[in-house]
Predict the 3D structure of the following.
Amino acid sequence: MSDSAADRIRPAGPASTATGLSPTEQAAARSVLAGERERTQARIAALQRDFDGIVLSSASGSADDEHDPEGSSTAFDRQHVAALLSQARDQLAEISRAAERVADGSYGTCERCGLPIGAERLAARPAAATCVRCAAGQAAGRV
Ligand SMILES: [Zn+2]
């Protein structure tokens, strides 16, 4: 009785090694991604505050214009922060997709060519979905 119960809780070993990522590596990837997600969310919140501040000061602050010798810098700041914000949101989406890939076992494998992405690249960019070669190809257009 107790033997068969133990059998049922045993994790499916061979299936999880199919991607070459050990359970320890998967756990590590999950915690790295969780940290990345937290940092990115904090960054988005901070950027959003900056953005709201800029919008507010430019909307309500025609009286403040005298303090600002370059009125156009506000528009520039706003564009700059908006760009950073959209970058950070893309990154957050990328991190979510990477977390899903950890769950389905495809994390660490290039989405395009199916080869391993490589530990070095994953250390630098934990949410990377493609290997260096494919990422370079993407940047350069179709090769
Ligand atoms: Zn690739």
